[in-house]
């Protein structure tokens, strides 16, 4: 690709400034410096690179060198340094402004994409600029660590670089939202989100990643994003140990809590009597949680709680006596396990239902 020629307009007045300042021995005036900065800004806005512009200034200096000989080399170099520095300052100022505007535009797009707040037709047009085709289906992965991240965080750059290196131009968007890393990928490219999960887990120092299901259209991105967020919330409330969670594997939990009042009634009626135990309901609720997590194997559950099997069995008997439900009975076990899940989701017994 041929670089655009740099018009002489961006060197207007430079030769005059050289001659005048070198001849008088003075420093550049504030007006002259600001004029050079303004030219640098205009050149940047027109898309001209700083390297080419500096070279043109040096060429102009060389062309003017016979008339500047009397000033001496040191004086000429000092003036050139001042002038080029002012020009470069203006160029860099324009570049920083353009970058801030680009970042603001990208941030606005990400917000609109994940919240679905923009006109869908306009959103689809903007999405193409960032490599997404919203006519297809997309899935969203969300990663959170111990500390919030933003677009300039090293973890963000590390993950994005790894994805680009591995998959190239695959219509992938990596961004941040509310301190979390977010990846949007085509719904039929699960390997992208799996790789993102691996990289994000490492970059965030062992954070947790949730992957939403693929859904079609611009609204599908919002849906998948919300599924991933809900999965992270469930993982925290249920204290799930898995570092990578998939919304499709957690669908039972939204079903269980869809009728919140019915779940609250189940928790209160089934587990409420545990409040009468010495030490309150929490120790016995933890006993049931570990028992179910251990596959209803008393020996393994006792080991996880650092109890003897006899002491653990006594706790199960105590639960049976208080609630009337026997954890060893298959029918009672299902009711108890559902109630335990509901208690964890609803924050009982810390929170009254």
Any key phrases for this structure?
Alpha-Beta Plaits, 8% strand, 353 residues, 6 strands, elongated, single chain, 3 domains, Arc Repressor Mutant, subunit A, alpha+beta, six-stranded mixed sheet
Condensed summary:
The chain has 14 helices and 6 strands. It is an alpha+beta fold and 353 residues long. The protein has 3 domains: 8-100, no CATH class; 121-250, Reverse transcriptase/Diguanylate cyclase domain (Alpha-Beta Plaits), CATH 3.30.70; 254-346, Arc Repressor Mutant, subunit A (Orthogonal Bundle), CATH 1.10.10.2840.
Overall form: elongated
Helix residue percentage: 55-70%
Structural class, from helix and strand content?
alpha+beta
Biggest β-sheet: count, sense, barrel?
Answer: 6 strands, mixed
Please tell me the overall pLDDT.
Answer: 88
Question: CATH homologous superfamily name of the largest domain?
Answer: Reverse transcriptase/Diguanylate cyclase domain
Would you mind describing this structure in some detail?
Residues 284-340 form the PucR C-terminal helix-turn-helix domain. It holds the Pfam family HTH_30. By secondary structure, the chain is of the alpha+beta class. The protein has three domains: 8-100, no CATH class; 121-250, Reverse transcriptase/Diguanylate cyclase domain (Alpha-Beta Plaits, 2-Layer Sandwich); 254-346, Arc Repressor Mutant, subunit A (Orthogonal Bundle). 61% of the residues lie in helices and 8% in strands. The chain has helices at residues 14-24, 30-45, 50-68, 73-115, 120-129, 154-167, 190-203, 217-238, 252-256, 260-271, 282-293, 298-304, 309-323, 330-346, and strands at 137-144, 173-177, 180-186, 208-211, 215-216, 244-246. Strands 1, 2, 3, 4, 5 and 6 form a six-stranded mixed beta sheet that branches. The chain is elongated, with a radius of gyration of 33 Å.
């Amino acid at each position: 690709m041929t670089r655009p020629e740099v018009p002489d307009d961006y060197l207007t007045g430079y030769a005059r400034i050289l001659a005048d300042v070198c001849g008088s021995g003075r420093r550049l005036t504030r007006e002259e410096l600001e004029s050079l900065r303004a030219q640098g800004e205009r050149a940047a806005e027109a898309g001209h690179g700083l390297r080419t512009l500096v070279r043109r200034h040096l060429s102009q200096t060389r062309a003017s060198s016979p008339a500047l000989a009397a000033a001496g080399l040191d004086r000429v170099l000092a003036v050139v340094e001042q002038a080029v520095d002012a020009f470069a300052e203006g160029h860099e100022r324009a570049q920083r402004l353009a970058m801030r505007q680009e970042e603001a535009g990208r941030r606005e797009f990400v917000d609109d994409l994940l919240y679905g707040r923009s006109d869908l037709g306009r959103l689809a047009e903007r999405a193409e600029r960032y490599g997404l085709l919203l006519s297809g289906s997309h899935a969203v992965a969300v990663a959170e660590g111990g500390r919030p991240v933003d677009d300039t965080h090293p973890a963000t750059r590390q993950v994005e670089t790894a994805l680009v290196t591995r998959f190239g131009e695959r219509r992938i968007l990596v961004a941040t939202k509310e301190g979390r890393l977010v990846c949007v990928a085509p719904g039929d490219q699960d390997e992208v989100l799996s790789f993102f999960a691996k990289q994000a887990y490492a970059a965030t120092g062992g954070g947790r990643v949730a992957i939403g299901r693929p859904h079609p259209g611009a609204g599908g991105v919002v849906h998948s994003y919300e599924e991933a967020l809900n999965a992270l919330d469930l993982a925290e409330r249920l204290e799930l140990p898995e570092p990578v969670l998939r919304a499709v594997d957690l669908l039972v939990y939204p079903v269980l809590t869809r009728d919140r009042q019915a779940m609250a009634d189940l928790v209160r009626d089934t587990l409420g009597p545990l409040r009468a135990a010495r030490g309150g309901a929490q120790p016995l609720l933890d006993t049931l949680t570990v028992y179910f997590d251990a596959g209803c194997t008393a020996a393994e559950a006792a080991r996880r709680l650092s109890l003897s099997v006899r002491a653990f069995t006594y706790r199960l008997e105590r639960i049976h006596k208080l609630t009337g439900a026997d954890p060893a009975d298959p029918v009672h076990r299902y009711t108890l396990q559902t109630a335990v899940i509901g208690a964890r989701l609803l924050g009982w017994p810390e929170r009254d239902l």
